[in-house]
Design goal:
Order of helices and strands: HEHEHEEEEEEHHEEHHHEE
Largest sheet: 4 strands, mixed
Shape: elongated
Number of helices: 8
Mean pLDDT: 81
Strand order of the largest sheet: 1-2-12-11
Radius of gyration: 22 Å
Number of strands: 12
Structural class: alpha+beta
Strand content: 25-35%
Helix content: 25-40%
Amino acid sequence: TNLRAWHGGIEDYSSAGLDFQLAIGLHVCGEASDRIVRLAVERQRPWAISPCCIGAVNNEGHVQGAWAEIPLHAGEEFVLEKIETGDCFIRFKGSSVPLFGAAQITPEGRLGPALVTFDEGSGYSLKRRRSKVVVEERLEIVESIPVLREVLHGAPGATEQVLPAGLVLLRRNLPKLRRPLSQWLSSQLTEESYVDLASVADTGADHKLFEGVFQRAKTVVTMDRGMWAVERGYKVEHLRIGGMGSYAKDDLLTGSVL
C-alpha cells in the first residue's frame, strides 16, 4: 500500500523523517494552516489549504508557553537519541521530537512547573537560573531519574527508555509567526493593523451589514498566505470550493512549485 498513517503535531512532522507528495489542510484553524504551507515549501511539495478561523492567528503565539508536553504515557517505551553535539531527541511512534526539558505531575494530578530545562547548542546542561539551593535540590531529583541522567551524562547514541510514572517530557513550542507573512502585505500594513484586519475577517458573513467588508478582509488575509509562497518560487491560485451554498469559509488556496 502507498498509505501510511502518522499522528502528531505539524511542528514534529518535519523531524520525523517521513516524506509526502502533497500537503492538505481542510478547515485548519489559525496558525496551523500557515505551518502546513511552510512545511510544504520547505520540502518543495505542492499544497492545498482551506483555512478556517483566521482571526485565531492573533492569539496563538500569546497564549502558548515556551514548552509543551511530548505525548507519552507512564510505562510507554521510547528511544532517547543523543547526537554528537549533545542534543537529544525523543523517538516514538514514527516521531522524532527535540527534548527541551521535563516536568513532574503534582500529587493533585496536575502538571507542575518545569523540573528541568536544558541549554542547547553545545550539548545539554542544567540551567542555573534559580538559587543554588533550588538547583541542588532539583539536580538531585534529576540524577535519580534514569532518562534525565542519560541526557546529562550519557554518551552519544540511542538507548531504549521507559517513561517513569509522574514524569512528563517537554518539547519547545514554536515561536509565534510574524505577521503579515508576506513582504507584499508587510509593505502596506503594520502587525497591529493586521490584527484588526484578521479580526474583521473572522466576524462572519451572518453580519449582513458588513458582509462586503468581511469578504474583502478575508481575501486579503488569504492573499497574504499565498503571496508568502509566491515570494518563495511557488505558483499560487486562490479558488472557491463549489457546492457550499452561502457558507463563508469556502476559500481554497493551492500552491505548486514553478
